[in-house]
Structure formats: structure tokens, C-alpha cells
Give the backbone structure.
Amino acid sequence: MLEVRLHGRGGQGAVTSAELLATAAIEKGAYAQAFPSFGPERRGAPVVAFLRISDGPIRLRCNIVRPDIVTVLDPGILRIVPVASGLKGEGVLVVNSKADEEEIRELTQHKGKVVKVDATRIALEELGLPITNTTMVGALVRALEFISIDDLEGPVRDRFGRLAERNLKAMKRAFEEAQICGAR
Amino acid sequence: MGKRRGLEVSVGAAEAVAMADVDVIAAYPITPQTHIVEHLAELVNNGELDAEFVPVESEHSALSVCIGASAAGARTFTCTSAQGLALMNEIVYIASSMRLPIVMILANRSLSAPLSIWNDHSDAMSVRDTGWIQVFAQNGQEVFDHIFFAYRVGEDPKVSLPVMIHVDGFIVTHVIEPVEFWEKEQVERYLPPFKPISRLDPERPVTMGAFAMPQLFTETKVAQDMATTQSMEVILSAWEEIYKITSRRYRPVEAYRTEGAETIFVVQGSFGETLSVAVDELRAKGEPVGLVMPRLWRPFPFELFRSAVKGAKNLIVIDRAISFGGQGGPLAIELRSSLFGLPAPPRVINFICGLASRDVTVEDFKNIYERAVDGSKAPVFQEDFQFYGVRS
Amino acid sequence: MKGTKELLTWKEIIPGNVILNPGNAREYRTGDWRSQRPVWDFERCIMCGMCYAFCPDAAIFEREDGYYEADYYYCKGCGICAEECPKKAISMVEE
């Protein structure tokens, strides 16, 4: 089972990111679970969402404390939330940041693999809004083995309708532009 | 079988209500029930569901509308949580006493104060004695299947009672997960049209919900209690039919790895799934431990419960609600009472945790096990219950 | 269906205690509750119908000649008609 924790701000769509990936996995015949850090929805406040993907039924109904992957949707979150808390040493940190690798490692203390992308810029260019949920899914797919960008096309179309095309483009760009920094 | 879809449990629940061809929906929004009702409103608005959606001004009115509609022979649905249920309370009793097969999902949430939108079973336990048939659903699939189950059982003329489906708020309602849909024809075969015993009809007037003198009141209540107890037969056959359609087996008391278990956990709701993982891990270490989940809460399956825990030395009952000043949580009180008088009954060790959605992990369940079986780590055993994970 | 005086067992009760013969309250002789009865003085009565309008039990009826009178099968003897009569044409008499 793969466990992913997503950090973002209320309104940025961390839950949507988790939902898109879960739906894609389920459509492929796998089992998945996506859920928010339950609470009142407050735009701008740091929020967490969770994603589990497995080839068998998932029986866990609790938060993820030892994630395999942590995804950060907002660059500012790195300074206020210990995002890498519990992240497995061999786990992957996927961040929206234009900072260099050193700075990210210093802020998070994560020594494992890092996938970084300037998702805010991509989202602004493609969607005209700094909402990075679909964009960051593109970067996150770089860290996943069994889900491809193509698998996300259906879920994105269902979710975004006429806005799907632009979101898919942002997602593909993030997938391509993401930089992978190997574990130290 | 229908399509397997990845969706939010609330949306799946609403889709099931729509597939059950409900006629009237009346509800007032309250977290964490909202997504269920919002999706139903959307289906009605888009013309995908031919039903009357009544946006009422309170939960008291929501259930009142359902009562009127159900009395007129409509298939009705409502849904609420915590304070909404508390405001509805007066009418909750009336629905069952008038023997109207309304179906309600209770998205379980803590009762205030302090204000909490999160999950526990304090609302569920507040309506224990209201006369509704009550089941706990642990995941999206169970919620989906139990919508059809609830109408089939409630509307059976031998039963004619409302049915409440307990679903943990957020922990289950807000999760996106796979749900296997039923085919339309399967639902139609499983769930015949609602044919009420009596109904409001201007052509053939009757009086419903009238006054009764003390000479009649007790007989009316005994009839209601007998109907509740005797609904077991209909419940079992409704689950058997679900098994034939879906291959999913539902039982009044679910047991997991109880063979040879010296210690058995007893829980309700979403605790069960996480706990089954803890049981697997403890079993892997050779611990003789199992898990029992009373799915059916009312009527309570006493005999089945006693046989499910037969031979166990310890029962670790984990409640998600408090009975202030009482002898533990409501589940433990019920179970302890059901064991009273048995020769050599198991010891009941009651923990209360997970209030207001406080996360309870596999590790927590293993800690609870350790505390329960190792007397030296649990100096408060003489007491009737203990809170787990509380700062002191 | 048993009448109101017969006592049903729990097995005989229609689920939800539904009453199949609506309006059966009409059989109930509330006139038995009366200790005083209203009596009309038709010399004073102006046929205004105030007694008819005020009777809380709808136990006062209009006669063919236009005067009003109580139906003693139902009249509980509350005295409201006598109190409201603008001409003091109704007096309450011990049963």
C-alpha cells in the first residue's frame, strides 16, 4: 500500500488532487482512498489531505502518519508546517517551489528523493489562477509508478468539464518540467 | 453487478437513495451530512431524479415532512447529524410510533458543547431508544447497500418501522473510495414498490397519530416493541438477498478472527476496519485476539452476540460515546448487561476514545490491547471504564 | 373494529394505532360531563348566533325557525354561550 499526504491551503484543492488520483487508481481496478483532514473549510489556512492506493481493499480509517510520499501544493507551507514529519527516509517529497534543492532540504530536513516544480507559475500561465491542485498532480505522478498522466484524463474531464483541457495541460507541463533530485 | 465507481461515500449514498426511487426528500443542511443532501438536491434539480425535494427550515420540520409524506404512501428520505438530530428528536419518536418506514442516514457527529463538527457516536446513542431499526455501516459500499436494505426492511408489512443507518461523519462520509453500484433491475427486484398498511387518502379517510388513553397506550407500545424484535427475520432475509445479488455477506454481529480468541474487541462503525488490521498484526505475533462488531444495534441481537463472544476471557469494548456518570460507554453498558447471569462470563474492559474524530490508529488499538490484557499496566481496572489517549 | 369502549389487545392494534373509522369521536357522549345546562329564553333571543359562534364544541345548532339551541348529547355545559350572549338570553341551570 502506498500512502500519500498532501499539504496545501484551504481553497487550493489538496483534496481534489487526492480525489483525482484515487479515482484514476480505482478506474484502473485498484483500491484507493482519498480524504481531507476533516474540518471546517477555511480558505488560506494550512490543510492536509490523504491518499492511499493499494492492490487490495483498504481497511485503514485513520490519518497517515508515516507517508511514502508527501506533496506540498503551496511554497509558503514549507516555512510554517513540518511537512516531512513522519515521511519515510526512502520516501519522496514532491514540492511546489522555485527555491533550489538546498533550501528545500534545509527547510524540510528531508534527505530522500525530492521532486520539485514551480507549479504556481505553471498554474498562473495555464489557468490564470494560483490554484495548483491539478498542476501538482502532474508532479506527483512523477513519483508514482502505476499511474500515468493518461490515466488522469478521465477523472479530470469528469471533474472539470470545459475547464479540463487547460487543467490537463498544466498537469502535463508539471509532469515534464518537474526536476528530480536524488536521495542524499 | 453494476459499475465500480470511485466517488465520495456521501455521493454514493445519495445515488443509492435516487436508485431506490425515493418520492420525497426533506432535510436541513448540517455538517457532515451536507454532501449527501446536496447531491440529492442536484439530482432533483437536474431532472435526474423525479422526487419532491423539500428544503425545510429545521430538522424538526424535515422529519415532520417525511412523516406526512410517508403517511400518504410516499417513499421518503432524510439525513442529519448531531444537533440536527437533537432538534429533530421529538419527531424521531413519532416516526417509529406511527410505524412509518422513513429511511435516515445519520452522519454520526459529536453533540455540542463544546461545538464540534467531528465524528463520534454521541448522537447515535441519544436515539437508541427511539424505536428505529438501526444499523452501523463501516464503509461506502455498506452505506450504498444498506439504503436498499433499509427500505426493504422498513417497508415490509411485518415490520413497518423507520430505519436509521449510522455512518461515521467525515471518517466515512467524506472519503473517496470504490463503490460497486447495483444494476437498476437488481434494485427493482430487491425493492418492491412501497405498499403501506394504511395511508392518508381523501377517498378513504383514516386518522393517524391520534391520542390514546392509558388503556390503549401500553398495548400500542407492546405492539411496536414486538414489531421491532420480530423484524429480525425480515432483516436476515434482506441481508441474504443482498448476498445473492452482490456476494457480500452482512450479519447482525460480524466476527473477525474470533476462532480461539481469548480476547475479543467489540466496536461499532469505522473503528472496525482499522481494528481488523491491528488484529491481523497481533495475531501475527501469536496473540489470541479477535474482533466482533454488532452491525445491528436495534433490535439488538443478544443471542448472536453471546455466541459470538463465547469462550473469550476478555472483551475489550471501545465506545465512541460517554454515558456521563454511568457505567462506561453505552455499548459497554448494553453488552455487560447482555452477559449478566451467564456462567463464567468474559470480563468487560471498556475504553472510550475517538471522540470528535480524534485519530485512533492501528498502534492505538495495539496499545489498548496491551493495557487490557496486562493488568499491571492498567491500575484502574477496578473502575468500570477508562478513557484512552487523554492528557492527564 | 372494536368501539371505543372495548379494549383491544396488543395483537389487535393496527400498526401505528391508525383509526380506520374517522369521525368516530361523534359517538362519544360528552353531554354526560355536564353539571349545568344552557337554557334559552326565546323572548330575549335576537337570533344573532353569537352562542353558535362561540361554542367550543360545536354543540349549538340553528333550528329551522332561526333560533339556536344546544345538542345535549354533546354539550358539556361550559357556560361560554351564556357568558357571551349579548342579550343575557341564556341561563345555566343545574342538572
User: Anything to note?
Assistant: Residues 214-246 of chain B form the longest helix (33 residues).
